[in-house]
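Record 1 of the preview.
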Amino acid sequence: MTHPSFETLLDAARAAHGRHPALHRFCAFPDDVTATPVTPHHIPAADLMARDPLLQTPNLPPLARAFVAAGPHATWRETYRNTGIGDDFLARFGCYCLIGPGGAYQSAQMHAFVVYMPPGLCYPRHHHPGEEMYFVLAGSAEFHRDGAAPEILSPGQGVIHASNQPHATETLDRPLLAYVIWRSHLGTPPVLTMPAPPARD
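->
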């Protein structure tokens, strides 16, 4: 049975696509969503997200609140385990799926995730054939894309990663909570693009 928090989250995601033209332009909310059972899987970053003071504020957008509320019941991903990415990244990077593998819902049209990164974390350069949009819900981060200047994005702003365009994300003094959607090549996971960018001093 799907936990009620996921139904609230799905409704909030659908509403966000209707409220934000950039989301709708990138990918209309799918009309083929079906519910699937979820087996909760906990990782350390889930606790970081649950305790983050920024995510406890009353003016948090509905979609952000819904992602935080569903977190204890989600299948948190460990995409880069056994890749040599490092223990610090694995302990602090958080991602779970709403629509797609491990998520409470499935669709052939779109995958949807939440990404949480605490301050001072680098998600190294990686790529995937799926076209992707990051839409910032809370906090901020610096987004890097091959062929484009770095951008620091805040809530309500988004960035699109083209198919197989290497990209990286780095939080500075604030955390990041982002809604992430894929609209193509949904079955191919991301891989790290070497070499990774140097760490900041």
